[in-house]
Amino acid sequence: MPGIVNWNDLRKFVYLSTTGVEPSSGTFWDKRADAFNEHMAQMHAVTGLQLSGIRLRHDYTVLDIGAGTGRIAIPVAKRVKQVTAVDFSRRMLDILKINALKENVNNISCINEPWEALEAGRNISPHDVVIASLSFNMIDLEKELKKMDAAARKSVYLFMSASKWMDDELQRTLYGSAIHTGADHIYIFNILYDLGILANVEVWSYDSMVHYSSLDDAVSKFMELYRLPPKNEGALRNYLRGILTEDENKLCFKRKRKLAMIWWTKTE
Length: 268
Known about the structure:
This protein is α/β, with parallel strands linked by helices. It is built from eleven helices and eight strands. It has one domain (7-164, 180-207, 257-265): Vaccinia Virus protein VP39 (Rossmann fold, 3-Layer(aba) Sandwich), CATH 3.40.50.150.
């Protein structure tokens, strides 16, 4: 039951006003899947943290929502009976299959659909464990979180940034001031609470390092990530020129980040 604050509506407002557009389509990510896969290869430290928090058994079935190119699905598949990878980008799943083959993993099945189109008992089977990692490009989180809970027989693990969507310094560079928007884990925890789900929350700090081949490459990817209009390119370029460091003949963007894991079991 919603309390004084309707956290689902608040998150809708913040999400749409921050990104400026509705969630991306599968076609949007099809075009960016190869670059996304390269970026995922740089996230070993985060992947290790996430895997250390997920309780699995060899006889479990796991549903990975927004699986991307398999950063979580593939190592999880090595520890369980079967993984179902859901993603609305066909190209993402094509790369996932290639990555799985390289790792000699053959127990992953793929569903090329947005999570919003799926529902346990209707067009997807319940799984022992449901995972959603950095994949909350959804407007109505309350509805989709309820479906995740319904799809899990034993437990649910959700991972999201506990840092601001855009660093304060970059906000000031682009817009003249920093706007406090909060982080997704605040909204998700409270939405779950209003649904009667008393979830556990863990927040981890880590050093994020992303490499770019050139300043132009960094500018292009930042423009794309934050969906910035052309008028912001000059200010962004000056910001990146001052903050990027050289590392192994590439430019590196280093920053402190936080990752939240929200999880619950169906027996508690």
